[in-house]
């Protein structure tokens, strides 16, 4: 069964540094998402991406965050200047056409630790 | 009011038992509904979509009540492997999922 893959599985970064989290969505999916889950808390939506642009973003997704689909397969989340409170599990997800109502399939996440 | 609310549990049940729990959602414009399961420190995995007519997938039965804005999940003949956190997830048709905080189920031998 096709999977969403994420790299790295664990990223440790100094506060203030930039970090890029990578995702390869399922190949025939058209909708891409990033979520985060702080330890012990619920999964929170960050951003959705369709047709090479952001469809929706949450209040968490401020100017420090950006997303990109640099080629036909990768989908990245960049945090420009990390803060301690950015420490969380970051999940990438994708869903198939025809619309944004289809079930989303999650990657196994990147654990981001900010020191 | 939270977008999606769930009873956190935990529900501790013996193998073979039936366990059921609900979640409520606040936005009446919500379009699609799902149950995901999440094991400790792992990614959410789709368990089943939830349809207005109710649907069943093996030992799992989901119901949606749009009038009262709640969704239920029933697990029959519980297995040890059913131990997990069950996430109620709602999509408002704006390309994002709203997650409940999860209901913890522990099945004991």
What structural class do the secondary elements of chain B suggest? mainly beta
Mean pLDDT of chain A: 94
Largest sheet of chain A: 7 strands, mixed
Helical stretch count of chain B? 0
**Secondary structure tally: strands of chain A:** 11
Question: Tally of extended strands of chain B?
Answer: 11
Report the β-strand fraction of chain A as a percent range: over 45%
Q: What general outline of chain A do the C-alpha atoms trace?
A: globular
Number of helices of chain A: 0
Distance between the termini of chain A: 36 Å
What is the CA-atom radius of gyration of chain B, in angstroms?
13 Å
Arithmetic mean of pLDDT of chain B: 93
How do the helices and strands follow one another from N- to C-terminus of chain A? EEEEEEEEEEE
The portion of residues assigned to helices of chain A is under 10%
- Spans of chain A with pLDDT under 50 lasting ≥5 residues? none
- Assembly state of the chains shown: heterodimer
Instruction: Report, as a whole number of angstroms, the end-to-end distance of chain B.
Output: 38 Å
Low-confidence spans of chain B: none
